[in-house]
Amino acid sequence: MMRVENLSKRFKVDKKANVPKDRLDGKWFQALSNISFDAKSGEVIGLLGANGAGKTTTLRLLSGILKADSGNIETDLASAEGDSRDYRRQLGFLSGSKGLYERLTVRENLNFFARSYGLTSEQTNQQIDKLSQQLNLSDFIDRKVIELSTGMRQRAAIGRALVHDPQLVIFDEPTTGLDIVATEQVLSCIEQQKQAGKTVLFATHHMDEVQLLCDRILVIHQGQRNFFGTEAEFLSQYQADSLVAALRGCLQLGVAK
After folding, report:
1. Which of 3, 53, 246, 249 lies 20 to 30 Å (CA to CA) from residue 82?
2. 174 part of a folded domain
């Protein structure tokens, strides 16, 4: 289980920076303000919001890439602040940068990251075999990353994020730019993580993915939490008959809930 309490983050910006003026305090841009939520084992949380709302900042804080100005992030096993190494060992993070070495093969990448997390040779081979089946990597696992298509790279990057069998999985728009087949494979992988009892958080702009996979929804708007709850609660609160309509209403009202 993950608990996030009053997470805040600001960045120093140049006067010429194109940022919303109502989130500026002198030279500081308030990216996030007092975000709180929890995520249980075997639960998928969908993170929604407009571009620039603070979704990626939230995920980078949860992954440990960024350090919060204030607030707490902890799981049942470790705290991001107090036990950062133990905390990072239990999470897998996928960002837009992919995090793969292009001149290595997919197998070599997976082997490198698995061993970096302390897996034995036997454990590494078992994980690579399992992920190869889950993500359908076998046709290109011994090809160099630089030779792969966008969809192949994305599946390889997801394999990299999962190779150490993390308990907390964080994906930033994992299906962006993928075709239908690759998207279905990624969504199937997320479902498999859920069935294995993992906690999954992922940002997306696709409401069908939210409806298919998510147990609860977190909406961030202008750096603040506007909604956190189930799909049924979301539809009811904004008197909507679809997630698209509920999200539109949520963002238009702009009142944190």
Report:
1. 53
2. no
